[in-house]
C-alpha cells in the first residue's frame, strides 16, 4: 500500500504555518537532490496535494450545530467547551466505558495526513490533519465478533451550540461506517491541523476524517462511538435518503439529484477555479476493493 500520505509527528511538534510550509519546501528540495533517505519518503506530500491556507481551513466550514453559514462555525464554535472531554465507547466491545481524551491519546502515534476534503456540495480543499488511525482505538477497546458497523455521535449542547435550536437535522449529528471502512488505515481521528490543536470549528477535540467519502461522513466533536450489528442511523441519509446515501463515497459519475458531482470548486484557488472530481476522491487505489461487486449507483 502506498503510504506517502503518512508523516510521523510528535505530539509536541507545533509548527507555525510559515515554518511548516518552508520545511516542506526544503525537504522536497532535499528529496530532489537524492537525499530522500534523510527526509524519508513519508515527508513528501502526496503528489499534487498542496494544503490550503490555515485561514481557509478555519474560516470556511460546515458545522451546522453553530449555524448553516460557512462563516458561522468560525464565529460561534469558540463557545464549545472542549476540555475536559470524554468519549463513551460502547456496544459490541470487550472494554466499554467512558474514555477521557488522555486515555484515548495514550500510546497513539500522532501523524500528519494531507487529505483532500470533498464536500457533497461540490467544493474541496486540502487539509494537513494531525491524528491517528481509528483502528488503533478500536483495537484498544476490543471489537467483538459480530460487530459490523461503527456509529458515531457529536456532542449536543444547546447552551453552547446556537444552531441546534433550529431543527435543521435531528440532533445530535450522527454518522456511521461499515467496520471494514472504520478499520481502513486511511480512516483517522483528527486532533489537529497544521500541527496545532484542532480549532473548534473543525471539530475539536476529536473528529473523524474519511477522505474517500463526502465530507459530511467526517463527523465532528465526537462523544460516543458504538459498535453494532445493524447499520446505524446517519443524520443526512435519514433526513433525506433520496439525496444522501449511507456510503457517500465520492463518485463523479453519480450525480446528486440537484447537481452534478463531476467537478468541484477549489476553495482558495481563485474565483472560477475548478477541478474534475476523482473517483473515491483520488483514494481508489486504497479503497476500491472494499466495494467490489457492489453497484455504486444503487449504494450511493
Ligand atoms: N457534527 C457535525 N459534523 C460535521 C458537520 C456538521 O454540520 N456537524 N458537517 C460535515 C460536513 S458537510 C463537512 S464538508 C465537514 C467539514 O469539515 P471542516 O469544516 O473541518 O472542513 O464536516 C462534516 N462534519
Ligand atoms: Mo459537506
What does this structure look like?
The chain has 300 residues and is an alpha+beta fold. It has a single domain, classed as Alpha-Beta Complex (Sulfite Oxidase, Chain A, domain 2), CATH 3.90.420.10. The protein contains 8 helices and 13 strands. The chain has helices spanning 17-39, 54-59, 72-76, 101-105, 134-141, 179-182, 235-239, 284-287, and strands spanning 7-8, 86-91, 97-100, 111-119, 123-133, 149-154, 174-178, 188-193, 196-197, 207-209, 222-228, 263-266, 274-276. The strands form 2 sheets. Strands 1, 4, 5, 8, 9, 10, 12 and 13 form an 8-stranded mixed β-sheet that branches. Strands 3-2-11-6-7 form a 5-stranded mixed β-sheet. The longest helix is centred in the first third of the chain and has 23 residues, at 17-39. The relative contact order is 0.16. Residues 1-5, 7-16 and 25-44 have low confidence and may be disordered. The structure holds ligand MTE and molybdenum atom (MO). Residues 62, 119-121, 215-216 line the site of molybdenum atom. The site of the ligand Nc1nc2c(c(=O)[nH]1)N[C@H]1C(S)=C(S)[C@@H](COP(=O)(O)O)O[C@H]1N2 has 16 residues, from strand 4.
